[in-house]
């Protein structure tokens, strides 16, 4: 065995660098964090070859004192904490004092800074050699700091091998920028690559700017398909002082990957299992199987309640009151999503956009406003009214030319319930027809509404079943003639074993032989249903869940199965009043924008969009 010896500073820093400096993007992250901690308002980034040849970050922040310059490059040197207690309440992005030292050990690094207002002043330090000795020379620099990192990993070939193409490295850098741009809205950021301006984030002064930054991160569609939320759980109300704000994407705006989920704790972007779980749970009821929600959420809390010193990259945190944080996140987001239903001014909730007005409405949080029964916000303009009830929308012209069609339309028109004079048009409007036994066509102030009637009804039934179960359990409806159902022995056993539970759900079942049971009652809400099939499906679910505890856990799934039975089947003819009743129920039902499986239940096509389809007015 060789004898033990102290490693030289460069080597020990290189070992430490392994954790912090993985690629150009991690250098950018650390440098930007430093600039932000120094209260910069403008940051200029220059890159060459995806950052592998050169990364230069220049800021107009507080600067570093001449005497501190060399110290800044040594390991465990920081201005952000000084004693153990400081570690308990970290409010800066950095605090470990190792980023610059790590970078310096795996690149050719120069640091130039000026902490004064004197433009002629400024000092530069570069590191070289095994022992990382640094020499300070004068170098004029406006107030602020420039860090230049050249030839990353030039002396650590093993690391260099892991670098990808310049393009890939550049993409990762842009990703870091996007994340930071959302949490630091007041800072202007310029990104140049190989001498060309690539990205520019202007300081966000108003809502339109914020929307622009969001669009840069999530794409244009997000803001139109997102709900803005703001929730607080103040200490005075028994909370621990939590505040949440940000945007959650509508369930219909989900993705197959979890790649657009941004969560910030005290303005630091983090990844945390507890957080992801809470949010996932909040979406559980409304998201199509396997889909991932999109969000940008900002949680603020007392820094003493969260430990950021968990991992060198500071991507992870540990909450001191994990449970409180979990339930707060869950309920805030759950609530916001529950309010997603057809509403005045919010526009369509799916693919086809309603157009003007949507952006403003969802940004300002109007998406959360309670449904007002169609009153208030939705006041059609005189032109809209005219278009709906007399003008171009009514095909008088076709009427005269093509008698048979005309007659057909005429009946649909007279059968539709037009609102009494002076009454407001509800968000989903009034039904005009049923299409292929599947869709309801309705018209509202904006244009055409198309509803998937089974999906919509299923959601309504489901929400009602949940509410009733929460309240006093489901009411039973005794059958005049009990129905005998043949089943597997296992299912019959289940029925027997869980009879108490089944009663809560409104079923009264009696086992009459090894393989048959008698259905005596079913839930009153589902009384029109085929009792045998309903019971069979519910027992199949039970068999899957097994224990009583698991049945309770899966209660909603069970109710969802039941709801599927209780909902209008495709191909059932609905009368116009029935359709209108369904539309009104949708407006009043939580989460009615999606069916139980997260698919959209309705969509809107505005008159403008319809006009475009026919190239009218072009
Ligand atoms: P940390 O950020 O964890 O303190 P770093 O190695 O990143 O550690 O930086 C060391 C110190 O150098 C910081 O504490 C700060 O005082 C100073 N520093 C680094 N970058 C800047 C900057 N852009 N502006 C002002 N001071 C800086
Ligand atoms: Mg730092």
Low-pLDDT residue spans? 344-417
What's the CATH H-level homologous superfamily of the largest domain?
Answer: MutL, C-terminal domain, regulatory subdomain
Structural class: alpha+beta
- Taken from the alpha-carbon principal axes, the silhouette is elongated
In round numbers, the mean pLDDT is: 82
> Which ligands, by name, code or SMILES, are bound?
adenosine-5'-diphosphate, magnesium ion
Description:
The chain has 618 residues and is of the alpha+beta class. It folds into three domains: 9-201, Heat Shock Protein 90; 219-368, Ribosomal Protein S5, domain 2; 377-618, 2-Layer Sandwich (Ribosomal Protein S8, Chain: A, domain 1). It is 36% helix and 21% strand. An eight-stranded mixed beta sheet has the order 5-4-3-6-2-1-7-8, covered by helices on one side. The chain has a five-stranded mixed beta sheet with strand order 9-10-13-11-12. β4 (123-128) and β5 form a beta hairpin. The longest helix has 19 residues, at 453-471. The termini are far apart. The protein binds adenosine-5'-diphosphate and magnesium ion. Residues 30, 34-35, 38, 59, 61-64, 72, 77-80, 94-101, 145 line the site of adenosine-5'-diphosphate.
């Amino acid at each position: 065995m060789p004898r033990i010896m102290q490693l030289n500073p460069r080597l020990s820093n290189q070992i430490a660098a392994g954790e912090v400096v993985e690629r150009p993007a991690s250098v950018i992250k650390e440098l930007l964090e430093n600039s932000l901690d120094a209260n910069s308002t403008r940051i200029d980034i220059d890159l060459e070859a995806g950052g592998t040849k050169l990364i230069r970050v220049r800021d107009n922040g507080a600067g570093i004192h001449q005497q501190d310059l060399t110290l800044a490059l040594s390991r465990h040197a920081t201005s952000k904490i000084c004693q153990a207690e400081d570690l308990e309440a970290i409010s800066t992005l950095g605090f470990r004092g190792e980023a610059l030292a790590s970078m310096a050990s795996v690149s050719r690094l120069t640091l130039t800074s000026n902490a004064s207002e004197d433009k002629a002043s400024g000092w530069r330090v570069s590191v070289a050699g095994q022992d990382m000795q640094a020499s300070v020379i004068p170098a004029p620099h406006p107030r602020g700091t420039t860090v230049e990192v050249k030839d990353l990993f030039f002396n650590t070939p093993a690391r260099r091998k892991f670098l990808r193409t310049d393009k890939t490295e550049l993409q990762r850098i842009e990703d870091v920028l996007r994340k930071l741009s959302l949490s630091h809205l007041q800072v202007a950021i310029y990104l140049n690559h190989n001498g060309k301006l690539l990205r520019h984030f202007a300081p966000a002064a108003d809502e339109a700017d914020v929307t622009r930054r969001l669009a840069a991160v999530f794409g244009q569609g997000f803001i139109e398909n997102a709900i803005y939320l703001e929730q607080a759980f103040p200490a005075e109300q028994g909370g621990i002082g939590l505040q949440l704000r940000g945007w959650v994407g509508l369930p219909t705006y989900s993705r197959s990957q979890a790649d657009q989920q941004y969560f910030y704790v005290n303005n630091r972007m983090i990844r945390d299992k507890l957080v992801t779980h809470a949010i996932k749970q909040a979406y559980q009821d409304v998201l199509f199987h396997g889909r991932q929600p999109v969000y940008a959420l900002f949680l603020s809390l007392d820094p003493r309640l969260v430990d950021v010193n968990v991992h060198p990259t500071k991507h992870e945190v540990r909450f001191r009151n994990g449970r409180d944080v979990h339930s707060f996140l869950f309920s805030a987001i759950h609530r916001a999503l529950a309010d997603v239903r057809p509403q005045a001014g919010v526009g369509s909730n799916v693919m086809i956009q309603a157009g003007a007005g949507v952006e403003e409405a969802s940004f300002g949080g109007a998406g959360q406003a309670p449904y007002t029964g169609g009153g208030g916000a939705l006041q059609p303009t005189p032109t809209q009214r005219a278009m709906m009830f007399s003008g171009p929308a009514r095909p008088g012209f076709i009427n005269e030319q093509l008698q048979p069609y005309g007659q057909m339309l005429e009946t649909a028109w007279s059968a539709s319930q037009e609102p009494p004079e002076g009454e407001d048009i509800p968000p989903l409007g009034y039904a005009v027809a049923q299409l292929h036994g599947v869709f309801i066509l309705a018209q509202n102030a904006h244009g055409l509404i198309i509803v998937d009637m089974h999906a919509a009804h299923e959601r309504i039934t489901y929400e009602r079943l949940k509410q009733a179960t929460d309240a006093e359990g489901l009411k039973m409806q005794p059958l005049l003639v009990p129905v005998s159902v043949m089943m597997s022995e296992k299912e019959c056993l289940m029925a027997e074993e869980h009879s108490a539970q089944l009663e809560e759900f409104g079923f009264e079942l009696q086992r009459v032989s090894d393989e048959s049971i008698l259905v005596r009652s079913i839930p009153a809400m589902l009384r029109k249903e085929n009792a045998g099939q309903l019971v069979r499906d519910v027992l199949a679910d039970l068999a899957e869940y097994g224990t009583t505890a698991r049945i309770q856990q899966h209660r909603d799934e069970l109710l969802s199965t039941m709801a599927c039975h209780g909902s209008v089947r495709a191909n059932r003819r609905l009368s116009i009043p029935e359709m209108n009743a369904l539309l009104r129920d949708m407006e009043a039902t939580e989460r009615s924008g999606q069916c139980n499986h997260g698919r959209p239940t309705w969509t809107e096509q505005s008159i403008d969009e319809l006009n475009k389809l026919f190239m009218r007015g072009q």
